[in-house]
Amino acid sequence: MMAYHFSKIVGLLCVVFVLQVYGDVTDTEYALMPSVFHMDDFDQCMVLGEEMLYCFVTTELRPTNPKQPSQVWKIIEKVISSAKNYRHDKLRHGICVPLSCPNLAGNITFFKTNQKLLQKELSSCYTEKYSKLGLESLVTRMHCETQEPFYNIDSFDIFVAICLFILFAVVVLGSFYEGCARYKSKEEYDKITNTT
Protein backbone atom coordinates (compact mmCIF):
# COMPACT_ATOMS: atom_id res chain seq x y z
CA MET A 1 0.00 0.00 0.00
CA MET A 2 2.82 2.36 0.90
CA ALA A 3 4.65 1.51 -2.34
CA TYR A 4 1.50 2.42 -4.31
CA HIS A 5 1.34 5.89 -2.72
CA PHE A 6 5.09 6.33 -3.17
CA SER A 7 4.81 5.59 -6.91
CA LYS A 8 1.97 8.12 -7.24
CA ILE A 9 4.08 10.77 -5.49
CA VAL A 10 7.09 10.03 -7.72
CA GLY A 11 4.88 10.19 -10.82
CA LEU A 12 3.43 13.53 -9.72
CA LEU A 13 6.92 14.93 -9.05
CA CYS A 14 8.02 13.83 -12.54
CA VAL A 15 5.06 15.63 -14.12
CA VAL A 16 5.81 18.79 -12.11
CA PHE A 17 9.48 18.59 -13.11
CA VAL A 18 8.67 18.22 -16.82
CA LEU A 19 6.21 21.10 -16.69
CA GLN A 20 8.73 23.28 -14.89
CA VAL A 21 11.56 22.48 -17.33
CA TYR A 22 9.54 22.93 -20.51
CA GLY A 23 7.13 25.50 -19.11
CA ASP A 24 4.36 26.33 -21.53
CA VAL A 25 6.15 24.89 -24.57
CA THR A 26 4.59 21.80 -26.12
CA ASP A 27 6.59 19.08 -27.84
CA THR A 28 5.32 20.30 -31.20
CA GLU A 29 6.51 23.84 -30.48
CA TYR A 30 9.83 22.56 -29.15
CA ALA A 31 10.38 20.63 -32.39
CA LEU A 32 10.02 23.86 -34.42
CA MET A 33 13.20 25.34 -32.93
CA PRO A 34 16.58 24.75 -34.62
CA SER A 35 18.84 22.14 -33.02
CA VAL A 36 21.17 23.56 -30.39
CA PHE A 37 23.85 20.98 -31.22
CA HIS A 38 24.53 19.47 -34.64
CA MET A 39 27.51 17.65 -36.14
CA ASP A 40 27.93 16.83 -39.83
CA ASP A 41 29.80 13.64 -40.68
CA PHE A 42 33.51 14.55 -40.45
CA ASP A 43 34.66 11.45 -42.35
CA GLN A 44 32.31 12.18 -45.23
CA CYS A 45 33.77 15.69 -45.37
CA MET A 46 37.35 14.30 -45.42
CA VAL A 47 36.51 12.39 -48.61
CA LEU A 48 36.20 15.73 -50.43
CA GLY A 49 40.01 16.06 -50.46
CA GLU A 50 41.22 19.57 -51.35
CA GLU A 51 37.67 20.91 -51.09
CA MET A 52 37.36 19.73 -47.46
CA LEU A 53 36.56 22.45 -44.93
CA TYR A 54 34.95 21.45 -41.61
CA CYS A 55 34.07 24.25 -39.21
CA PHE A 56 32.89 24.34 -35.61
CA VAL A 57 30.68 27.41 -35.31
CA THR A 58 28.75 29.16 -32.57
CA THR A 59 25.96 31.16 -34.09
CA GLU A 60 23.53 33.53 -32.42
CA LEU A 61 19.96 33.74 -33.64
CA ARG A 62 17.72 36.78 -33.53
CA PRO A 63 14.40 37.65 -35.13
CA THR A 64 14.45 38.96 -38.70
CA ASN A 65 11.89 41.59 -37.70
CA PRO A 66 12.26 42.47 -33.99
CA LYS A 67 9.01 44.49 -34.00
CA GLN A 68 7.01 41.49 -35.24
CA PRO A 69 8.95 38.39 -34.15
CA SER A 70 8.05 35.04 -35.67
CA GLN A 71 6.28 32.28 -33.77
CA VAL A 72 9.55 30.32 -33.57
CA TRP A 73 11.35 33.28 -32.00
CA LYS A 74 8.58 33.61 -29.40
CA ILE A 75 9.03 29.93 -28.55
CA ILE A 76 12.80 30.41 -28.27
CA GLU A 77 12.28 33.37 -25.92
CA LYS A 78 9.90 31.30 -23.81
CA VAL A 79 12.39 28.43 -23.53
CA ILE A 80 15.45 30.57 -22.77
CA SER A 81 13.57 32.52 -20.11
CA SER A 82 14.23 29.57 -17.78
CA ALA A 83 17.81 29.14 -16.61
CA LYS A 84 17.27 25.36 -16.61
CA ASN A 85 17.02 25.19 -20.41
CA TYR A 86 19.65 25.39 -23.12
CA ARG A 87 20.00 28.70 -24.90
CA HIS A 88 18.21 27.96 -28.17
CA ASP A 89 19.33 31.31 -29.51
CA LYS A 90 22.97 30.13 -29.47
CA LEU A 91 23.65 27.17 -31.72
CA ARG A 92 26.83 25.08 -31.64
CA HIS A 93 27.28 23.22 -34.90
CA GLY A 94 30.05 21.28 -36.62
CA ILE A 95 29.50 21.61 -40.36
CA CYS A 96 31.11 20.44 -43.56
CA VAL A 97 31.04 23.77 -45.38
CA PRO A 98 30.81 22.45 -48.98
CA LEU A 99 27.87 20.19 -48.05
CA SER A 100 25.99 22.42 -45.58
CA CYS A 101 26.46 25.64 -47.54
CA PRO A 102 26.68 24.58 -51.20
CA ASN A 103 26.79 28.19 -52.42
CA LEU A 104 30.26 28.46 -50.78
CA ALA A 105 31.59 25.22 -52.30
CA GLY A 106 33.22 26.88 -55.32
CA ASN A 107 35.48 29.15 -53.22
CA ILE A 108 36.72 26.79 -50.52
CA THR A 109 40.40 27.40 -51.34
CA PHE A 110 39.87 31.16 -50.97
CA PHE A 111 37.94 30.80 -47.70
CA LYS A 112 40.72 28.70 -46.15
CA THR A 113 42.92 31.81 -46.11
CA ASN A 114 40.22 34.42 -45.44
CA GLN A 115 38.56 33.58 -42.12
CA LYS A 116 36.72 36.91 -41.73
CA LEU A 117 34.98 36.55 -45.07
CA LEU A 118 34.20 32.89 -44.35
CA GLN A 119 32.60 33.88 -41.03
CA LYS A 120 30.47 36.49 -42.83
CA GLU A 121 29.44 34.01 -45.55
CA LEU A 122 28.56 31.33 -42.98
CA SER A 123 26.37 33.89 -41.20
CA SER A 124 24.61 34.52 -44.52
CA CYS A 125 24.24 30.78 -45.12
CA TYR A 126 22.65 30.24 -41.70
CA THR A 127 20.42 33.30 -42.15
CA GLU A 128 19.21 31.87 -45.45
CA LYS A 129 18.72 28.46 -43.84
CA TYR A 130 16.56 29.83 -41.01
CA SER A 131 14.82 32.66 -42.90
CA LYS A 132 11.63 30.59 -43.26
CA LEU A 133 11.51 30.50 -39.44
CA GLY A 134 11.76 34.30 -39.28
CA LEU A 135 15.30 34.16 -37.87
CA GLU A 136 18.64 35.60 -38.88
CA SER A 137 22.03 34.41 -37.76
CA LEU A 138 25.42 35.78 -36.80
CA VAL A 139 28.41 33.46 -36.47
CA THR A 140 30.24 34.65 -33.34
CA ARG A 141 32.94 31.98 -33.01
CA MET A 142 34.48 29.67 -35.55
CA HIS A 143 37.29 27.11 -35.76
CA CYS A 144 37.93 25.31 -39.04
CA GLU A 145 39.81 22.13 -39.97
CA THR A 146 41.32 21.29 -43.35
CA GLN A 147 43.42 18.43 -44.67
CA GLU A 148 46.50 20.62 -44.45
CA PRO A 149 48.55 20.34 -41.25
CA PHE A 150 47.76 22.93 -38.61
CA TYR A 151 51.44 23.81 -38.17
CA ASN A 152 53.84 23.91 -41.11
CA ILE A 153 57.32 22.46 -40.72
CA ASP A 154 59.91 25.25 -40.70
CA SER A 155 63.74 25.37 -40.56
CA PHE A 156 63.79 25.31 -36.74
CA ASP A 157 61.78 22.06 -36.72
CA ILE A 158 64.27 20.52 -39.16
CA PHE A 159 67.24 21.69 -37.02
CA VAL A 160 65.75 20.12 -33.86
CA ALA A 161 65.02 16.88 -35.72
CA ILE A 162 68.62 16.69 -36.99
CA CYS A 163 70.00 17.32 -33.47
CA LEU A 164 67.78 14.57 -32.02
CA PHE A 165 68.80 12.18 -34.80
CA ILE A 166 72.52 12.87 -34.15
CA LEU A 167 72.04 12.33 -30.40
CA PHE A 168 70.18 9.07 -31.06
CA ALA A 169 72.92 7.92 -33.48
CA VAL A 170 75.69 8.70 -30.94
CA VAL A 171 73.86 6.70 -28.24
CA VAL A 172 73.30 3.72 -30.56
CA LEU A 173 76.88 3.74 -31.90
CA GLY A 174 78.34 4.16 -28.39
CA SER A 175 76.25 1.27 -27.07
CA PHE A 176 77.26 -0.89 -30.03
CA TYR A 177 80.97 -0.05 -29.58
CA GLU A 178 80.80 -0.78 -25.82
CA GLY A 179 79.02 -4.08 -26.51
CA CYS A 180 81.66 -5.14 -29.05
CA ALA A 181 84.55 -4.11 -26.76
CA ARG A 182 83.10 -6.26 -23.98
CA TYR A 183 83.76 -9.39 -26.03
CA LYS A 184 87.34 -8.46 -26.90
CA SER A 185 90.06 -8.63 -24.25
CA LYS A 186 89.46 -7.63 -20.62
CA GLU A 187 92.26 -5.04 -20.82
CA GLU A 188 90.73 -3.31 -23.82
CA TYR A 189 87.29 -3.25 -22.16
CA ASP A 190 88.73 -1.80 -18.93
CA LYS A 191 90.61 0.79 -20.99
CA ILE A 192 87.32 2.03 -22.50
CA THR A 193 85.18 1.92 -19.37
CA ASN A 194 87.59 3.05 -16.61
CA THR A 195 88.43 6.67 -16.04
CA THR A 196 91.75 6.18 -14.27
Would you write up a description of this structure?
Residues 1-23 form the signal peptide. The chain crosses the membrane at residues 158-177. Keywords: Membrane, Signal, Transmembrane, Transmembrane helix. It contains 9 helices and 4 strands; from the N terminus they run ααβαβαβαααβαα. By secondary structure, it is α+β, with helices and mostly antiparallel strands. The chain folds into 2 domains: 33-145, no CATH class; 155-193, no CATH class. Strands 1-3-2-4 form a 4-stranded mixed β-sheet.
Write the layout of secondary structure elements.
Layout: H1 2-22, H2 27-32, E1 37-39, H3 42-46, E2 54-63, H4 71-80, E3 90-96, H5 97-100, H6 108-113, H7 115-130, E4 135-145, H8 155-182, H9 186-193
Parallel strand pairs: 1-3
Antiparallel strand pairs: 2-3, 2-4
Domain tally: 2
Element pattern in H and E: HHEHEHEHHHEHH
Report strand order across the widest sheet.
1-3-2-4
Can you give the helix content as a percent range? 40-55%
Characterize the largest beta sheet: strand count, sense, and whether it forms a barrel: 4 strands, mixed
Helix tally equals: 9
The parts where pLDDT drops under 50 for at least 5 residues are: none
Q: Compute the number of strand runs.
A: 4
Q: Structural class from helices and strands? A: alpha+beta
The coarse overall form would be elongated
Radius of gyration: 31 Å
Mean pLDDT: 83
CA distance, first residue to last residue: 93 Å
Strand content: 15-25%
